[in-house]
Amino acid sequence: MNLLEEIKNLSREYFDDVVFFRRHFHATPELSTQEHRTAAYIAARLDEMGISYEEGIAGTGIIGHIPGKNPASKVIALRADMDALPILEQNKVEYKSANPGVMHACGHDVHMASLLGSAKILHQLRDHWSGTVKLIFQPSEEKNPGGARMMLQEGALDHPRPAAIFGQHVFPGLPAGKVGIRSGSYMASADEIYITVKGTGGHAAKPELNVDPIVIASHVILALQQIVSRNAAPYIPTVLSFGRIIGDGQTNVIPDEVKIEGTFRTFDEEWRQRAHRRIRETAVFVAQGMGGGCEVFISDGYPYLHNNEELAAKFRRHASQYLGAENVEELELSMTAEDFAFYSRKFDTCFYRLGVRNLENGKTSNLHTSTFDVDERALETGTGLMAWLAICELTGDL
User: Fold this and answer.
1) Model confidence over 184-193: pLDDT tens digits?
2) Catalytic center residues
């Protein structure tokens, strides 16, 4: 049997099923830690396929097991995330979210549907490959502390321990039919910053009687930008951004405090910890120097994501075999983050991107937007490629 051609044939055969899965997930999105109906649907589909699984992992997570010949010879894992985002969908499609204010705007519906399709292919071909495939349906990727961290803390991947984990994520920067990969460091760490600047509020017409936290907060934000421009080494990509400022005063009322929220991202763990200290020290010193006070809380988020170099090289070779070398792109370093990075700290991992853009039918919106949608032809690529990667990794080059 020519497994590559058989996988392609099965991907085409199961395409309508995978589209149905994807549209079901898209219409019934659930937020992080709340993926109960999503998990029940996945479990029902695995039951129909005759695939065994464990459920209730890290809350709503599921891990399936597909044994081939000689199941103990090698184990690899395939991962899909399950949660949606708190976004009101604006798309006018029949599968639009039926849960107002919640939307699969990051493509996790595609990830789950593709993995179910891959599972169906791998299960059907199980007499033609050796080893075991673990199917990771992971909750809560979008929200710190992250479902990957929780799954690892529970030891969900230890018995049996996979030799490699592959993760697939939609990417509107590439057209459907193409995939992208970057070896080594790929996505940044991401920490959440919460700052409360304290002053003494009062009448805005009597500033001499107040300690104005609005003015202090503006100086704190400007001072913190120097941590990137004057403390970070130029060769370490670093981003410090603030997206929320709450000063609940009025046109004529100076508030008692101002809340600032932001994110810090980088690719170096030692610098990451030093930067945390500098953020705390700078914010406190600036506020105190202006007569106020400051409290800083930094929530440690996801580490930076590292693609194992050998596994990334295998991905390029196997993806080129499956799609053609012209459809495998090299990706740039990204300051976005993914909790798949936790797996990359403990296992050999490969996190790659699945093109979903289509200029002709208007599928061009970015991730995390209210109009994000995909060219569903990408589902055939995602389903077949993930099955092919699993078999190649288990049995060697075919």
Assistant:
1) 999 999 999 9
2) 83, 141
